[in-house]
Write a structure and sequence with these properties.
single chain, mainly alpha, two-stranded antiparallel sheet, 9 helices, 2 strands
């Protein structure tokens, strides 16, 4: 997260907290307060930000030694929608009509515009520094370009020829919400991972919490990537039987 975006995010998050609590906070949220903010955002916007993510954001904002967070643009847009009193929507409707995340960019533009005088003074100092440092940077770039090897792409693939726990863990995979009866059948077809459609869903509603049994997960440490999955012998007979890839901010 670059400097400007970090400043805007801090301001946005503090405004969201103050709107929920009724007064500005000076310290990180408790678990109860995080859950309250989660529910307030969901009821006002129709969109979800996990309460654990909100708590981690709070630690990042109020504790300079905390782990740096990097919220997605969708999450930033949800916070901005809450602060700016945007109309109620859903993830499906936002993807269909507002997938350019207008509320985040509107909030960011207004924030930076209001701090223009401060930025102008900072630019003067940066220009002076740049005048001195540009020749040095150019020299470093030339050296790196000609003498250092290009970075390797972080590529991984799993063929699931072996599906025992040790092999999966070694390849970076883990399983959430195990149903032992069906998980123990994962190796029935030799040379591949066999999974079964079980009762559960990844959508939040008033009656049920999102939960998918035997969800096979792997962490991806990058913002931009390509993913591909190969399926065999999947013939759904009901609309709710699904197979594929889920992209999640966290396992909650």
């Amino acid at each position: 997260m670059d400097g400007d975006t970090k400043k805007v995010f801090f301001s946005l998050y503090k405004e969201a907290e103050a709107k929920c609590m009724g007064y500005p906070l000076q310290q990180a949220l408790t678990e109860t307060e995080s859950k309250l903010l989660y529910n307030q955002i969901f009821e006002a916007t129709g969109l979800v930000i996990g309460w654990k993510s909100l708590k981690n954001f709070s630690l990042f904002v109020y504790n300079e030694n905390a782990k740096e967070e990097n919220p997605s643009i969708a999450t930033l847009d949800t916070l901005a929608r809450y602060v700016l009193n945007a109309p109620y929507t859903s993830e499906t409707e936002r993807k269909k009509n507002e997938n350019h995340f207008p509320y985040w960019f509107k909030y960011k533009e207004e924030y930076l515009s209001n701090h223009k005088s401060f930025e102008a003074n900072s630019k003067t100092k940066r220009h002076f520094s740049a005048f001195i440092l540009i020749p040095l940077f150019l020299t470093i770039i030339i050296i790196c370009f000609y003498f250092l090897p290009p970075p390797k792409a972080n590529v991984f693939s799993t063929d699931f020829h072996s599906v025992n726990d040790e092999s999966l863990t070694h390849d970076g995979w883990f399983v959430k919400d195990k149903d032992e009866r069906f998980w123990n059948r994962r190796g029935e077809k030799i040379g591949m991972l066999s999974l079964y459609t079980l009762t559960g869903d990844n959508w939040l509603d008033t009656a049920n919490q999102p939960k998918i049994k035997n969800l096979v997960l792997r962490k991806i440490n990058t913002d931009c990537f390509t993913a591909e999955v190969h399926l065999q012998n999947f013939f759904p007979q009901q609309e709710w039987q699904q197979a594929g890839i889920l992209l999640m901010e966290d396992t909650n």
